[in-house]
Amino acid sequence: PTSKPLVVVTRKLPEAIETRMAELFRVRLNEDDQPFSREDLVRAMAEADVLVPTVTDRLDAAVLAQAGPQLRLIANFGTGVDHIDVGTAHQRGITVTNTPDVLTEDTADMTMALILAVPRRLVEGERLLHSGGWTGWSPTHMLGHRIWGKRLGIVGMGRIGQAVARRARGFGMAIHYHNRRPVHPDIEAELEATYWESLDQMLARMDVISVHCPHTPATYHLLSARRLKLLQRHAYVVNTARGEVIDETALVRMLSAGDLAGAGLDVFERAPAVNPKLLGMDNVVAIPHMGSATIEGRIDMGEKVIVNIKAFADGHRPPDRVLPNLM
Ligand code: 8YV
Fold first, then answer.
1. Is residue 252 in contact with ligand 1, taking CB distance under 6 Å?
2. With CB atoms 3.0 to 4.6 Å apart as the test, which of 112, 151, 165, 187 could cross-link to 183 if both were Cys?
3. Does the interface ipTM go beyond 0.85?
4. Residues 190 and 237 both lie in one domain
5. Is 54 close to ligand 1, i.e. is its CB under 6 Å away?
6. Whose CA is closest to atom 12 on ligand 1?
7. pLDDT band at 104 (very low <50, low <70, confident <90, very high)
8. Is residue 1 included in any domain, yes or no?
C-alpha cells in the first residue's frame, strides 16, 4: 500500500486514540459525536477505505450494498457485532474485525455489581436515603437476599462468562453454565463449574441467571417467554450481553406479576428506549449500556482498532477478524 487509508470513525473516541489515528492514517472523525444517520453511513460506505463503527451503527445488507470497491475493512469499536451483517460484508470482500479481550474484565465487574446490587437492594436503599425516607435502623428493614451459597447459572461461557464465574466463586456462589459445548476440563475444574447441556433444566434450578452469549439469529430470545417461566420465583436475571437475547416483554410481565425476584439490566431490546415499567420497579436495577464503560477500557479498545487497521493496511491478516461462520 502506497497511500494511507481513509479511516471514517462514526463516533467520538478517546482523544489519545483519535490523535494516534490521525498520525497513522487519513481520518474523518466525528467531533460532535452525533450518531451517524443512515444517510451518513451510506455516504461513508462510498468514501471510506476503512470504517470504524460502533454498536449504534446498523450495517445491514442494504447499507453494505452501498459500499464502494474501496471499502475493504470494517474495524468495529466493540466486541459484539450483531449490528453488522458480517455474512454480507464477507460476500462483498469486506473484512470485519472487533475488539475482544480488553473489555472482558470490565464487563465482568459490572455484571458482578448487578449480581450484588439487585438481591442486596443497593440502589433501592440509596434511593430511600436520597428521598429523605430513612427513619432509622431496624432488624427487619431493607432485607435482601444473600448471594453467598446460591447457584449462579451462566448462559454463554465465553471469555466474559468465565470472568464472571471467577468473580462469583470468590463471592461463594456455585457456578453452573450452559454453552453450546462444555469448556475445557481444566477451566471447568478451576471454576468448579457444572455444565448443563439443557438450558431448560439449568434455568429451573438456578437462583441467579446471568447472560453472556452474543446476540445471533440462534440466540435471539433465547430466554423466551416459555423459558423464563421455567425460572424459580425467587430467581434473579442479569443481562450485560444484548437485550435481544431475552424476550423483554415477557420479562417485564413476569417481574410485574411477582413471578421473578428481580433483574439487573445493562442492555435492552429497543435501546436506548427502555420499557417504562422496568424503571418503576424497585427490584430492577437498569443502567445505560455501561458494561465496558471504563476510561482504560475505551483506550484499550481504540488501540485494538488501530492494531487491526494497521495490520490490514500493511497487508497482514488483522488479529481480530470476525468470521461469519462463527456467528
Ligand atoms: C461497547 C459492547 O460499549 O463491545 C460490545 O459488544 O457492547 C460495548 O462494550 C459497544 O459495543 C461499543 O461499540
1. no
2. 187
3. yes
4. yes
5. yes
6. 78
7. very high
8. no
In the block, cell 446498523 appears at: 58
CA of 120 to the centre of ligand 1 (A): 27
> Quick check: bond before 272 cis, omega within 30?
yes
Closest residue to atom 11 of ligand 1, CA basis? 78
Residue 176 shares a structural domain with residue 305: no
* Run of H or E including 27: strand 26-28
Cα(95)–Cα(73) distance, rounded to whole angstroms? Answer: 5
Give yes or no: residues 169 and 87 share one domain: no
Q: Is the CB of 111 under 6 A from ligand 1?
A: no
Domain interval for residue 67:
6-102+294-326
Q: What is the DSSP string of 77-111?
A: SSS--TTB-HHHHHHTT-EEE---STTHHHHHHHH
In ligand 1, the atom with minimum distance to the C-alpha of 54 is: 13
Rounded distance between C-alpha atoms, residue 176 and residue 258, angstroms: 24
Cα separation, 302 vs 143, in Å, equals 42
103: Cβ below 6 Å to ligand 1? yes
Task: Look at residue 248 and tell me if it is in a domain.
Answer: yes
Q: Are residues 119 and 181 in the same domain?
A: yes
pLDDT for 3: 85
pLDDT, one tens digit per residue, over 237-287 is 999 999 999 999 999 999 999 999 999 999 999 999 999 999 999 999 999
Confidence bin at 327 (pLDDT 50/70/90): very low
